[in-house]
Design goal:
This is D-alanyl-D-alanine endopeptidase. Residues 96-320 form the Peptidase S11 D-alanyl-D-alanine carboxypeptidase A N-terminal domain. The protein has 371 residues and is an alpha+beta fold. The protein folds into two domains: 14-74, no CATH class; 84-364, Beta-lactamase. Helix content is 27%, strand content 28%. It has nine helices and 17 strands. The chain has helices at residues 2-16, 84-87, 130-140, 174-184, 187-195, 200-214, 236-246, 250-257, 324-338; strands spanning 22-25, 28-35, 52-61, 64-74, 101-108, 114-118, 124-125, 148-150, 171-173, 233-234, 260-265, 268-273, 286-294, 298-307, 310-319, 354-356, 362-364. The strands form five sheets. The protein has a seven-stranded mixed beta sheet with strand order 13-14-15-5-6-17-16, sandwiched between helices. A four-stranded antiparallel beta sheet has the order 1-2-4-3. Strands 7-10 form a two-stranded antiparallel ribbon. The termini are far apart.
């Protein structure tokens, strides 16, 4: 009797206890709950909600097979996280190239002629594009790239809890940390670079902001060396200035465009890859680049590239979709290869405010959010 009672109790627990499991189904989370079903009754219990169904399962209870039914309800799609650009309505701005980026700016590097612009004066979060200024400050300060630095707990991301392959205690040269920070957007590497600046991270951030003022990046402000904070903001016009100046530094050109790199960390070799796959494409001639992403910023990309014999700086901010920023770069390149000035943008027909520069430039604009 005791054995039967115990078996019954376990069976009841298995029948009524919610299952602590989640399953992925077409990008949605399926919430599973086990329910008690009488024999021949499952068909009656199929819910009218088309997101809910019953699944037959065979389990073992004390070594014996038992048939149970699980009520599976597919969760509604999660609400999309709005970026700062979305909240400002920049995603509603149309352009003649149908870019997925809310902000775009393309500049002839040699003549400073604006070739294309869209919301280019709006200051938005820039995510890991911040690291380009981090690298610029390190190189301009002529810090010893062979000095061994140690990753500490202070370099761990307690803001967005991003992961890292650099364990606390890892010892590495400043040059290698700079390399993987720029090429692979390694957050702990960028944090360690800022922390090991004379005066510490606060002095480093102050140097970043001083450099921004020196370059007349008036819509730019930094609060950390990694870009994890959404308070690191800039405009596309400002970032084009940074890209143009950073392109003069051979080390930044090399580190940002290497397809991959191997570092020694704790006695083991770690292979890092570039976050921008375009650097390995033979049909691209990229001189400098940096990617970035946090939810508040969307997908971001800055690049210097040679297109049709012309040195071009491209900036794309708040792009929607994992590959959309590089796809926008491809759209822009094809457009630049095809245009013959002057070009009158098709966006004008849609009632979008458009300006045309003295050359072939196209502009679609909005007022800046931050001055």
């Amino acid at each position: 009797m005791l054995k039967l009672a115990l078996t019954a109790a376990i069976s009841m627990m298995l029948v009524f206890e919610p299952v602590a499991a989640e399953a992925k189904s077409k990008g949605r989370t399926a919430v599973v709950k086990r329910i008690k079903v009488k024999k021949h009754e499952p068909a009656k219990l199929v819910a009218s909600d088309n997101r809910q169904r019953l699944v037959r399962r065979v389990i073992k209870v004390r070594g014996k097979r038992k048939v149970v039914y699980e009520q599976v309800r597919r969760a509604a799609p999660a609400l999309a996280i709005l970026s700062a650009g979305d909240l400002a309505g920049l995603n509603l701005t149309h352009d003649p190239l149908a870019l997925r980026s809310s902000v775009a700016y393309v500049l002839d590097q040699d003549s400073s002629e604006v070739l294309f612009e869209k919301n280019s004066s709006v200051a938005l979060p820039i995510a890991s594009i911040t690291k380009l200024m981090t690298g610029f400050v390190v190189v301009q300060a002529h810090q010893n790239l062979d000095e061994i630095l140690t990753v500490t707990e202070d370099d761990v991301d307690h803001h967005k809890f991003t992961s890292s392959r650099l364990q606390v205690g890892t010892r590495m040269t400043r040059g290698d940390l700079l390399h993987i920070a720029l090429m692979s957007s390694e957050n702990r590497a960028a944090a360690a670079l800022g922390r090991n600046y004379p005066g510490g991270i606060n002095a480093f951030v102050a140097a970043m902001n001083a450099k921004a003022r020196e370059l007349s990046m008036n819509n730019t402000h930094y609060v950390d060396s990694s870009g994890l904070s959404s308070q690191n903001v800039s405009s596309a016009r400002d970032l084009a200035k940074l890209v143009s100046m950073a392109h003069h530094e051979p080390l930044l050109r090399q580190y940002t465009t290497d397809p991959n790199y191997v570092v020694e960390a704790g006695g083991r070799a770690l292979r890092y890859s570039n976050t921008n796959y375009l650097v390995a494409m033979p049909d691209w001639n990229i001189g400098l680049q940096k990617t970035g992403f946090i939810n508040e910023a969307g997908r971001c990309l800055v690049m210097q590239a040679m297109i049709q014999g012309r040195n071009v700086v491209m900036v794309f901010l708040d792009s929607k979709g994992k590959q959309s920023r590089t796809a926008d770069a491809g759209r822009m390149r094809r457009w630049l290869e095809a245009i013959k000035p002057p070009v009158i943008p098709a966006a004008a027909a849609a009632g979008v405010p458009v300006t045309v520069s003295a050359g072939a430039g196209v502009g679609v604009g909005a007022a800046p959010l931050v001055q």
